[in-house]
Amino acid sequence: MQEKYAAFSGRMLIVGFGAVGQGSLPLILRHIDLSPKQIRIVTANEFGKDIAAKCGVEFRVEPLTRDNYLAILARELGAGDFLVNASIDVSSVALIDWCQQHGVYYIDACIEPWPGGHTDASVLASRRSNYAYREAALELRAKYPSGPACVLMHGANPGLVSHLVKQALLNLARDLGLQISPPEKREDWARLAAKLEVKVIHIAERDHQSSPVRKAADEFVNTWSSEAFCGESLQPAELGWGTHERNWPHDACEYGFGGGAAIYLDRPGVATKVRSWVPFEGPFHGWLISHGEAISIPDYLTVREDGKVIYRPTCHYAYHPCDDAVLSLQEFAGNGWRFPPRQRLLRDEIDAGFDELGVLLMGHKRGAYWYGSQLSIAEARKLCPYNNATSLQVNAPYVAAMVWALRNPNAGIVEPDEIDYRSLLDMSSPYLGNLVGVYTDWTPLAGRGGLYPEDIDASDPWQFRNFRVT
Ligand SMILES: NC(=O)c1ccc[n+]([C@@H]2O[C@H](COP(=O)([O-])OP(=O)(O)OC[C@H]3O[C@@H](n4cnc5c(N)ncnc54)[C@H](O)[C@@H]3O)[C@@H](O)[C@H]2O)c1
């Protein structure tokens, strides 16, 4: 667990230092061979200053804006250096453009706009979508065909889940008795998904963590960024749109530009409830929050013949955040989407619970298959400081993707689906708790089901162990 996966001799600038920045710093220092003196943090407030000091890393409050970011980047970075974007309210595309131009490695966990970008009513919903942000980032490939490694959207989801999908496809193939070796090319992964008849992929997450300090009035409580969560919850509900779909939702829209792998509904994700399933909770009601992986995964798994799309799965996020975040979201909606004056990151005060985050592959011959991570707060604390279960599921693959970038310095702009899934899973897995695969007969239409009562041992609180685990 102390292994150095790559060496780095340049300067590293961490922009933003909240749940992702603070939780990933110890992993950077643990797994990348570099000195804390090589790292500098620039952020928008004092949050995390004590953690930076303990790690021996210089910390400066200096928010990036449209007007100052070019000067700050030029002062802090040059060719061969690394920009680690862990911020909100800073345009990822602006940062990527600069990094590609100046030979600087780059990673983020989400493609962010400048402040207010998610909710600017003067911009069409289709243009303030994750679909549009992803298109804008990918368009930079043409401008910088041989740029330095730049990894887009690589946390847990988006990020890790793209690799979980690949492993889940291989597990499913094995369990269906198919003799195959792991595909190497995109087309072959897509053909494998088609052959297995996977029709729908949910990114299914249920966060069970809780604190003895309950949410107060006018306060947003969450296990990661409250602000980022509210921002993305107001983007339109977006989902990869499968070729098997026969019913066009009444408020569905096409974007009218870009690759065409997804659609959006004419309402925000926070107003879109969906049914999904995870092993411990069983069936749950979550939100279809817009996320980049809901577009990149179905795009990656598209099969074309003579230019015509003949296979693509439907794909979306189904998120049940921790219970206090559910209450916070409810209050946020009730207040006409006004962000409350106070927010609280649940981390050190959490006294129970775990996060189950995985991919639920449906519509195939075995019904539905969930493959993912079940990580408890106790395990997360033992594994890495300054994290809860949710953030460690994000930060382990985030740092693993930085290692991948250092090992593939000329990779140019890539998204998670295009990265070697095996090495990412190998580096992340020690931090993910139980990585389990579970079959269920649950479907969103049946509502109930999914449990195999004869398999459940009531004395075992982690009942998933007694499901059909493979
Ligand atoms: N892919 C995933 O699984 C995943 C998971 C969690 C978070 N994220 C994304 O990672 C990013 C960070 O999330 P987080 O939970 O750490 O957020 P956070 O709110 O905890 O932290 C954000 C940080 O950005 C800083 N910041 C705000 N404005 C800034 C500016 N103008 N210049 C510099 N810094 C600024 C804040 O001071 C804060 O330190 C967000 O985009 C979020 O959506 C992705």
Characterization of this structure:
The chain has 470 residues and is α/β, with parallel strands linked by helices. The protein has two domains: 6-151, NAD(P)-binding Rossmann-like Domain (Rossmann fold), CATH 3.40.50; 160-393 and 428-466, homospermidine synthase like (Dihydrodipicolinate Reductase, domain 2, 2-Layer Sandwich), CATH 3.30.360.30. Helices cover 30% and strands 24% of the residues. Strands 5-4-2-6-7-8-22 form a seven-stranded parallel beta sheet, sandwiched between helices. Helix 4 (92-102) runs parallel beside helix 5. The protein starts with 5 loop residues before the first strand and ends in a 30-residue tail after the last strand. Residues 449-470 have low confidence and may be disordered. Bound molecules: nicotinamide-adenine-dinucleotide. Nicotinamide-adenine-dinucleotide binds at residues 15-21, 42-45, 47, 63-64, 86-90, 109-110, 112, 153, 155-159, 224-225, 227-228, 394.
